[in-house]
Amino acid sequence: MKNILKWNLLTGLLFSTQVWSHEVWVDAEHIHSGEVLQAAIGYGHFPKLEKIASDRLGIFAPMQLVGKNGIQTLKQKGENYQYESELPLQEGSYLVLGTYKPTFWSENNSGWRQQSLRQMLDAKYCEQSAMYAKHVLNVGHGRTDNDVLTRAVGQVLEIVPLINPQTVQVGEPLPVKVLFKGEPLSNVTLVATFKGFTERDLNDHNHTLEPQAFSHQTNSQGIVDIIPLREGYWKAKVIHKADFVPQSECNKLATYATLTFHIGSEH
What we know:
InterPro entries: DUF4198. The protein is mainly beta and 267 residues long. It has one domain. It contains two helices and 17 strands. The chain has helices at 2-14, 146-149, and strands at residues 23-28, 38-44, 60-67, 70-73, 75-76, 82-84, 92-108, 111-113, 125-139, 157-161, 174-180, 183-184, 189-194, 214-217, 223-226, 232-243, 252-263. The longest helix is centred in the first third of the chain and has 13 residues, at 2-14. The radius of gyration is 18 Å and the shape is globular. The model is unreliable at 1-20 and 200-207 (pLDDT under 50).
C-alpha cells in the first residue's frame, strides 16, 4: 500500500505541469437532519470561493439538489455564487449540482471574448466550453441513500461515484465511472487533489499550476479507482476535448467535470 501511495503522489506531481485556469466545482458544508443546505459554486482556483464576474453570471445555471424524491432547484441567496435549499433537508444522501452552460470562447490578438468563429472573424482559436460540477452530500451520520449517489444524473461529462465516499478510508480505493453523453469514457486522465495539498498562492492571477495528489486513466469501462492520500475535502477532475461540428463555427468542444467529496471524519 505504501508503494501505491508513493506512486500516486509522484504521478500527481508530474501531472501538475498541465495547466487549467478557471474551473467549476461545488462546495457544501456538512449539515444535520432538519438544517437548511447552504452551497456554493466555486469558479477559479480550488478551494477558494469568490464572487463571479458580472459578465459571466449568465453562463451559470441555478444550482440543483438531487435526492431520493427527485431534483429541486436551489435559490440564490447572499453572494452571487451562494445558494440554499427552500426547506430543511432530511437525513440521507444527496448530490449538489452546478452547471456552466456551453459557451463559445474565441481568441484574437486582443484577447478572449464570448464569441464563435462566425462572430470573431480574425480569431486564432475557438472553443465551446461546458463545465459540470457535482458534490456528494451526506446529511447526518446515519441512513444513506447510495442509489442517489451512484446513479448518473445526465450531465454531458460526468463523474459517477460507484460507492459512497463516506465509507472510504485513507488508502482505500474510491471507484468512479466517467461518462460522456451517457457512455463510458475510456483512457481519459482523472486527476484529484485535496484542500491543503498545494501551497499555491490563491491570489496569483497567472494561473499557477495546481499540483495533484492523484492521477490515473480510466479503463475500458470508464472506471478508475481514486486512492485518497488523507482525510479531508477532495476534488476530482476530468477534461474531454473533441472537434467541434461544424468547424466553420468553432475548433473544439471542451467539456470539464468535477466531483467533490469528503473522506474520513473531517466531513
